[in-house]
Automatic annotation (TrEMBL):
Keywords: Nucleus, SH3-binding. It comes from the Eukaryota. It comes from Haplochromis burtoni (Burton's mouthbrooder). This is SH3 domain-binding glutamic acid-rich-like protein. The keyword Nucleus applies. Its main location: nucleus. One of its GO terms (cellular component) is nucleus.
Length: 116
C-alpha cells in the first residue's frame, strides 16, 4: 500500500500551501511512507485525481483543491478529512493503515542517557 498525497507545487493560495505542508509534515514526522504527486507537473495524474474523488467530495463549482490523499487507488480524503482524523487520533485508520510505524529507541532524538 502506498499513501499518495496529491499536491500543487505552484499555487497562489497560501491556505493550500499550508494544508499541503501540514499533511506532508505529519507523514514525515510519523515516518509514514508516502509519495507526493505534483498535479501541476503531471497532467495525467491531475486528471486521474479528479476522476477518482467521489462525487460527494467534489465541489459544486470548479475542481477539488489539493492536498488530496489516497491509499493506492482508494480515496482517503482531503485536508479537512485529514484534519478531523488527526483531531480524533484516527489518522492511521483514515489512511487505511493497520498500525503506527514502530520506532526503535536508538532512532529517537532523546534516549534515556540524554534525559538524565
Amino acid at each position: 500500500m502506498v499513501i499518495k498525497v496529491y499536491v500543487a507545487s505552484s499555487t497562489g493560495s497560501l491556505a493550500v500551501k499550508k494544508h499541503q505542508q501540514a499533511v506532508v509534515g505529519f507523514l514525515e514526522a510519523n515516518r509514514i511512507d508516502f509519495q507526493e504527486v505534483d498535479i501541476t507537473m503531471l497532467e495525467e495524474q491531475r486528471l486521474w485525481m479528479y476522476r477518482n474523488i467521489p462525487r460527494d467530495k467534489q465541489p459544486e463549482k470548479g475542481n477539488p483543491l489539493p492536498p488530496q490523499i489516497f491509499n493506492d487507488d482508494r480515496y482517503c480524503g482531503d485536508y479537512e478529512d485529514f484534519f478531523l482524523s488527526k483531531e480524533n487520533n484516527t489518522v492511521f485508520a483514515f489512511l487505511g493503515l493497520s498500525s503506527q510505524p514502530s520506532v526503535k529507541v536508538s532512532e529517537c532524538a532523546y534516549t534515556r542517557s540524554t534525559l538524565f
